[in-house]
Amino acid sequence: EPVPADEDEDDEDKEGDEGDLAGRFLRLEQEQDAELRALPPFGAPVTHVYRPLQYAWRPHRRFVRRYLRTPKRVLFLGMNPGPFGMAQTGVPFGEVWHVREWLRVTGAVTKPPGEHPKRPVLGLSCRRAEVS
Question: Keywords in UniProt for this one (predicted)?
Answer without folding.
Answer: DNA damage, DNA repair, DNA-binding, Hydrolase
